[in-house]
Amino acid sequence: MTATTIVFDLDGTLIDTAPDLVASLNYTIAACDLEPVTFADLTHLVGQGARMMIRRAFDLRDRTLSEDQVPMLLMRFIEHYQSAMPGESKPYPGLLDALERLKLEGFILAVCTNKMESLARELLTSLDLTHHFAALTGGDSFAVRKPDPAHLVKTISLAGGDPSNAIMIGDSINDIMAAKNANLPSIAVPFGYSDVPVETLSPTRIITHFDQLTAELINELVSLAR
Ligand SMILES: O=C(O)COP(=O)(O)O
Ligand SMILES: [Mg+2]
């Protein structure tokens, strides 16, 4: 039987990227004289990639964003975000040990993020993490993205895994819904950027630290879902 695949979300799950996302977004929207956003705002803005984050910042400030401004603003965001990488972004406590441990235990590890694939790859490479993952896909890798189950299913297949023997771990509604839509169990982490308490998303389980992400837990949740 193919090994179980553990699919991780990136922003707010693997890596605490909020300070850099806020800094790059504020640099971007300053070009249009928008007031800076805060971390609390970010929980409502993040989740569907940079383009949507910019759009939502304009909505937050009751400003109209014309379509022809979008490419310039997106480029401004990407350049700023790339130039600072990894900036203040850091893996959450216990992540590195968990990745090493789970790989030794034979799990396939993958990343399914709505961040642009190139930015996600560069960020994980700058933190020396890319080598842990058999596949990494972003919000622009396919025609669809989380919460569409196809994003998750295609990521598992790319990693060499079996889409019926996998689990998704994430911090937001997109991750938990993608798992549900793909008929897979999910684990939510409460330390990320959800704008609602993660319990309200009804994940299969919640963990508060990566030390709790054990082979026993994953095997239990995957077999319960069968
Ligand atoms: O960058 C985003 O908007 C979302 O990224 P995530 O899917 O890794 O949480
Ligand atoms: Mg996330």
From TrEMBL:
Write down a Pfam family by its short name: HAD_2
Q: Does the keyword Nuclease apply?
A: no
Could you name the active-site residues? D9
* InterPro entries hit by this protein: HAD-like_hydrolase_sf, HAD-like_sf, HAD-SF_hydro_IA, HAD_2, HAD_sf, PGP-like_dom2, PGPase_prok
> Which residues are the signal sequence here?
none
Pathway assignment reads: Organic acid metabolism; glycolate biosynthesis; glycolate from 2-phosphoglycolate: step 1/1
Residues that, per the record, bind Mg(2+) = D9, D11, D171
Q: Which cofactor does it need?
A: Mg(2+)
- The Enzyme Commission number assigned here is 3.1.3.18
Q: Report the top EC class in one word.
A: hydrolase
Its UniProt entry gives the catalysed reaction(s) as: 2-phosphoglycolate + H2O = glycolate + phosphate
Q: Does the keyword Repeat apply?
A: no
* The entry's keywords: Carbohydrate metabolism, Hydrolase, Magnesium, Metal-binding
Protein family (similarity comment): Belongs to the HAD-like hydrolase superfamily. CbbY/CbbZ/Gph/YieH family.
**Matching HAMAP family, A to Z?**
GPH_hydrolase_bact
The task this protein performs is described as: Specifically catalyzes the dephosphorylation of 2-phosphoglycolate. Is involved in the dissimilation of the intracellular 2-phosphoglycolate formed during the DNA repair of 3'-phosphoglycolate ends, a major class of DNA lesions induced by oxidative stress.
Protein name stated in the entry: Phosphoglycolate phosphatase
Organism, as annotated? Peteryoungia desertarenae
